[in-house]
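quick one if you have a minute, typing this from the bus. theres a chain ive been looking at and ive put its sequence and its fold in C-alpha cell form underneath. please have a look and point out which stretches look like helix strand or loop to you. anything you notice is useful, everything is just below.

***
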Amino acid sequence: MVKQYNFSSKHRENSFFSSPTLLLALGSLGIVYGDIGTSPLYALRECFYGIYAVDLREGNILGVLSLVFWSLTMVISIKYVVFIMRADYKRMGGIFALLALISDDRRKISPKLYSYVVFIAMIGAALLFGDGVITPAISVLSAVEGLGIATESAKPLIVPLTCLILVFLFFVQHRGAEVIGNIFGPIMVVWFITIAMLGLKEIMVRPDILRSINPIYAYDFFAANRIQGFMVLGAVVLCITGGEALYADMGHFGKNPIRISWFGLVFPSLLLNYFGQGALLLNNPNFVINPFYGLVPKSLMYPMVCLSTIATIIASQAMISGIFSLTQQAIQLGFFPKMQIIHTSRNIEGQVYIPQINYIMMVISISLVLLFKRSGGLAGAYGIAVTADMALTSILYFFVINRIWKIPFWQALSLLFLFLSFDISYFSANLPKIFDGGWVTLAIAAIIVTAMIFFRDDREAIKTKILKPKLVLDAFLEDIAKNNPPRIQGTAVFMSTSAVGLPKSLLNHLKYNSFLHENIVILFNRLVDTPNVSDWEKVEIEELGHNFYRIFASYGFKEKPDIPLIMYLASFKGLSTDPATTIYYMSKGSIAGIPGRLIYDFT
C-alpha cells in the first residue's frame, strides 16, 4: 500500500567536520538559531523589568542567571539536541515526525490510545502555528526598539519600521531556506561572536557572576521570592523559545550540522551574553530598562541596532521555515487541504515554501505589532504556546521510545518525568500570561486544531465512501467479466488520486457511455523524496486483468508530471499504446501534465 505521507529528506548525514557538514552548519545558523539566538534582546529584561519582575539585587540576579543556564542546558542541549533530535522521520523533525514514527507501526499501540496520540500531535502543531506568528513580531520589534534608546526622536518610527521590515522578510521567503541560510549564516556568525564579546567584556569586570552556574542559587531564588519567583520563570522561558523551531527545522539541514553549530558557537555565545548582562546589572542597576543594549558602547550603538535588526529578521526565519515544514507534513498526513508547495532546493526535499501560509503569517504578524505596539506587551503573549508544545512533544517522544523503539518502560518514564519537570514548570509559570496576551496564541491554536479535526473527519468520511464494496476494484472487474460491456479501439487513461480503488471518472465514463476502450489504464502519480527519478524507475505497471492496467508514475520533488512521457516509457515495460488512439480522462484534483486537447473531465 502506498502511504499517504512522505516527508523525508534524502540528503545524507555527513560525518562530523566534513566540508558538506560544516557548510550546512553555517547555513543552519541563518535559519535554525535566529529565534533562540536573539532572545538575549529581551529575555533578561523581562525578568527584572517585566510584568512580574523581581527586585534587582545580587541574589536575584544570580538566581535568574542560574535558571537561564540550566534551562538552556537541560531543555535545549540535553532534551532537544541530544535526545529529541534522534526521533526523526526520514531525517525530518517536528511533532508530526513523532506522530509519523508511531503511525508507521500502529500495531504496537491500541486504536484508542492512537487516537489520543493523534489529538496530542494536532494540538501541539496548532500551538506551534500560534507561536510562529508571534516570533517575527516580537523579534523584529524588540530590535527596532533599540532606536528609541539611541534617540527619543526615533520612537514614533518604531512600529512603522517594524511593519516595513516584516513585509520585506515575508516577501523574500520564496527564495528558499538554502539561499536565505547562505546569506544569513555569515551574518549570524558575526552576531554570535559580537554578543559573546560584549558579554565577555563585562564578565571580566565581574567574574564572580559565574557563580550562578551553581544550581543552589536557583533554589535560593525561589526560596526568597516564592510565588513571585515562580512567576519570573515565565520570563526565563523566553531564553529557550526556539527549541521547537530547532527540531522542526531539522529536515532543512540534518542533525550533525545543527549539533555542531549549537555546541560550537550558539550555546557558548548565549551564555557569555547572558552572564555579561548579569554582570552589568550587578555594577549598573540603571541599565535594567534594557541590559542588552547596556552592554554596547555608545559609539557602537547605531551599528549594533542595525546588526540586531538584521539578526531578528533572521530570528523570524527559524519559525517561518518550521511552519512551512509543519504545514507540508500536515498536508501529507491529511490534516490540511492541499496547498501549493514549492520545493526551493534541488537536493533537500525538506526545504519548501508555501505561499498561502507565508501571506497569512505576514498579515497576522503585522496585526500583532499594530495591536501590542511594544515587545514587552508581546512578551505576555509569547511563551505559553511553546511551553505547552514542549510538554506535548515530551509525551509523544515517550510513546516513540517505549512503544516503537522498545526502550524499557521505567527508563522511558524516567526520561519523561525529567523532561516534564521542566516543561510543566515553564507552562504553569506562563499561565497568568493568558490574560496579558497569551489568549492570542491560544485562540489561533484553537482555530487551527478545529480546522484540522474537521478536515480530517471530512476526509475520512470521503475515504470511507470511496472504499464502499461496490467501488472496490475486484468487484468492478468481476462485473466487467460478467456483463462484458462493448469495447472500442484505443487506450483510455484515467487519472487517479489514489493508489488503490477506482477513479470516479472511470465509473462515470462507463455509466454514461456504456462502453470501454480496448485498454484501460489507471494512472497514479506519486512524489518521491529525491529531486529526480530515472526514466527506468519512473514507471511501474500492475496488470489487473481484462486489459486493465495500473501505472504508478514516480516523480522527484523537482520534476513536473509529464503523462505522455509516462505512456512512452510504459511501452518499454510491456504496455504498448498508440498515441493517436489514446484518450485521457481526469477526475477533480488529479495531477495535470496532459495535452489539453486530449483531456476529458468525467468528474
In short: Residues 19-458 form a domain with the Amino acid/polyamine transporter I fold (CATH 1.20.1740.10). Residues 1-14, 589-603 have pLDDT under 50 and may be disordered. The chain is about 60% helix and 10% strand. The two ends are 25 Å apart (CA to CA).
